[in-house]
Design a protein that fits this description.
- The protein is of the alpha+beta class.
- The protein has a single domain, classed as HIT-like (HIT family, subunit A).
- The chain is about 35% helix and about 15% strand.
- The chain has 5 helices and 5 strands.
- A 5-stranded antiparallel sheet has the order 1-2-3-5-4, with helices on both faces.
- α3 crosses α5.
């Protein structure tokens, strides 16, 4: 069994430097998409880069409405979130050529949600052999590119894929 493990996130989860309120709501309410790593905004949800990624390119689909579970979301939001998951995979295939993906939702702290009060879907690109001795022995994950550099590539790919889709309609 492989484990997706990132102990460095504990500093964020338990840290006292977090702003008051929901970090996702703050990011979605802001107009500074680059600073907040917002890759794409839809009508009901947005794609954001994870500030503490499991792997380079780790994306999240986050609805604008602040709810803890999918049960509280309307059908339009749920549909758009899954469409955005597909867009995430297309973006990541174009930019990073992963061999696969982990796509998941952690509902509640008992299920592993670091931000349990605002539902979100993780889309994590995976490569054959992406778990190496550093992670296993040194508890260190190598993220080979700065988040702002990855962000620029992901935004460009999102625009290109959305333009292609619009041209087909």
């Amino acid at each position: 069994m492989e484990r997706l493990w990132s102990p460095w996130r504990m500093e964020y989860l338990l840290g006292e430097d977090k702003p008051e309120g929901c970090i996702f709501c703050h990011k979605l309410e802001s107009e500074d998409d680059k600073d907040n790593l917002v890759v794409h905004r839809g009508k009901h949800a947005a794609i954001l880069m994870n500030l503490y990624p499991y792997n380079n390119g780790h994306l999240m689909v986050i609805p604008y409405v602040h709810e803890p579970t999918t049960e509280k979301l309307n059908a339009e939001t749920l549909l758009e979130m899954m469409e955005l998951v597909n867009l995430c995979m297309g973006i990541l295939r174009k930019v990073m050529s992963p061999n696969g993906f982990n796509v998941g939702i952690n509902m509640g702290t008992a299920a592993g949600a670091g931000i349990a009060e605002h539902i979100h879907i993780h889309v994590v690109p995976r490569w054959n052999g992406d778990t190496n001795f550093l992670q296993v022995c040194a508890q260190t994950r190598v993220i080979p590119e700065l988040l702002p550099d990855t962000y620029e590539k992901l935004v460009a790919a999102a625009r290109e894929l959305l333009d292609q889709t619009a041209n087909l309609a």
